[in-house]
Amino acid sequence: MLDLGRSFLASVERSPNETAIVDGVVRLSYAEWFERIRNVTGALHDIGLRRGDHLVTLLQNRWELATLHWACQFLGVIVTPLNWRAKSDEIDYCLQDSKATVLVFQDVSSQAVAESAMANRVKRASVGMSAAGAVSFDDWLVAEPASRLLNADADDWSLMLYTSGTTGKPKGVPRRHRHERAAALAHVAQNLYGRGERTLGVMPLYHTMGVRSLLSMSLIDGCFVCVPKFDPAAVLTSIEAERISNLYLVPTLYHDILAHPNCSKTDLSSVRKLGFAGAPMNADLVQRLVAVFLPELFVNHYGSSEVYTFTVDQNAARKPGSAGKGGINQRIRVVRLNSKCPDALTEPYEEGEIIADLTGDESFEGYWNRPDADAKSLVEGWYFSGDTGYFDSDGDLFVSGRTDDMIISGGENISPVEIESLLSLHPAVDEVAVVGLPDPRWGQQVTAFVKRVGEVTEAALDEHCRASGLANFKRPRAYIFVKEVPRSPVGKLLRRKLVASEYDPE
Question: Which residues form the AMP-binding enzyme C-terminal domain (predicted)?
Answer without folding.
Answer: 418-492
